[in-house]
Amino acid sequence: QVQLQESGPGLVKPSQTLSLTCTVSGATITTSRDDWSWIRQPPGKGLEWMGAIAYNGNTYYSPSLKSRTSISRDTSKNQFSLQLSSVTPDDTAVYYCVRWVPYSGYDYWGQGTQVTVSS
């Protein structure tokens, strides 16, 4: 059973950097052709794909967030992380880490973690 679990602060101050980690069990983040994504959902809005790190370490970012987003990984811990800089209240959302696999798409999601940007 594949499981993903987000962790990180639930409250971040404006202008600071939001940092989240996703711990994966039941699968390996270096498995060929799998991508590991961050997706968020602001209150009352739809899902927004933020970016991903591929099995080979390549990264991909949403053009609208690229200047503020960094995704990295620690293969020894089977974790991948998100950093979003210069946050504003508009970055308040539930943040999900998600696995994407060829042909099946997004098949496993973390439970999501609420992050609020407020002073």
Characterization of this structure:
The protein is mainly β and 119 residues long. 0% of the residues lie in helices and 53% in strands. The protein has no helices and eleven strands. The chain has strands spanning 3-7, 11-12, 18-25, 35-41, 48-54, 59-61, 69-74, 79-84, 93-101, 105-109, 113-117. Strands 2, 4, 5, 6, 9, 10 and 11 form a seven-stranded mixed beta sheet that branches. It has a four-stranded antiparallel beta sheet with strand order 1-3-8-7, with no helix packed on it. The radius of gyration is 13 Å and the shape is globular. The relative contact order is 0.31.
Low-confidence stretches: none
Question: Count of helical segments?
Answer: 0
Note the main sheet. Answer: 7 strands, mixed
Report how far apart the termini are. Answer: 39 Å
Assign an overall shape.
Answer: globular
Q: How many beta-strand runs?
A: 11
What is the mean pLDDT?
Answer: 97
Structural class designation: mainly beta
Q: In percent, how helical is the residue content?
A: under 10%
Q: Give the ordered list of helices and strands.
A: EEEEEEEEEEE
Query: β content, as a range?
Result: over 45%
Report Rg.
13 Å
